[in-house]
Design brief:
Length: about 240
């Protein structure tokens, strides 16, 4: 009887300990239930004040970065502007240098041309006067040619005529020497090769015993003034065989 009463008291307790504890209304005695661990939850989020401070710091950094970027952009634009102006100034300097070089060259050419013009004006200042004297020289030459050679061969018999001839010849020589001092020369191209720059061919005659294109007769002498022909000599030229 005693053993049955003990079993009756112990059995319900074992059954209660063996039941699951899922139901919230079931009370499990602590001495029979196993120890239960209550889960703990941890949050990694920053506190509200720290998060606001971090956001504030990030916003300031963004603003500073934007300001720095804007500043650098302005500096870049100004630098590009300065470089562009520098290129323009370089091009202008190059243009001015080219203009200066051309101006110097033009000025030197003008100086050279002016010197040539001055020299030409000096050399040919008496050209008109010299042309006027040519006729006098021609008249003296004609007068000398009019004296017969036979009379000159007998000076004792024709003393007055010979003296007159010598006086004319002396006058001609003095006049020609004076003209020569001023650059004027008499041209007598007898026997020379024909030159169209200083000679004027009035006729041509074939002559087998003479070189073609040479002057065999001087009809009128020519004159040069400082190398420039002021009157071409009128001559007769030996014709070429085919002519």
């Amino acid at each position: 009887m005693l053993s049955r009463s003990i079993l009756r008291q112990v059995a319900p307790r074992r059954l209660l300990a063996a039941r699951p504890t899922a139901a919230a209304h079931v009370m499990v005695p602590m001495r029979y239930a196993p120890a239960m661990q209550v889960p703990r939850f941890y949050s990694f989020a920053a506190p509200a004040e720290g998060e606001a401070a971090e956001k504030k710091t990030t916003g300031e950094e963004v603003k500073e970065a934007e300001a720095q970027l804007e500043k650098e952009t302005k500096i870049t634009e100004e630098l590009e502007k300065v470089l562009k102006e520098l290129e323009q100034k370089k091009q202008e300097a190059k243009d001015y240098k080219d203009k200066f070089t051309r101006a110097v060259a033009d000025f030197r050419n003008l100086q050279d041309r002016t010197e040539r013009d001055k020299k030409s004006a000096k050399d040919f200042a008496i050209q008109k006067f010299a042309k006027d004297l040519i006729e006098s020289v021609d008249n003296l030459e004609r007068a000398l040619q009019a004296v017969p050679q036979e009379a000159l061969a007998a000076p004792e018999q024709n003393k007055e005529l010979v003296d007159f001839y010598n006086g004319l010849k002396m006058t001609e020589d003095i006049l020609l020497n004076t003209l020569k001092k001023h650059g004027m020369e008499k041209v007598n191209p007898l026997g020379e090769v024909f030159d169209p720059n200083v000679h004027e061919a009035t006729f041509q005659v074939p002559m087998p015993d003479k070189e073609p294109n040479t002057v065999f007769h001087v009809q009128q002498t020519g004159f040069l003034l400082n190398g420039r022909t002021i009157r071409a000599a009128k001559v007769g030229v030996v014709a070429s065989p085919q002519n």
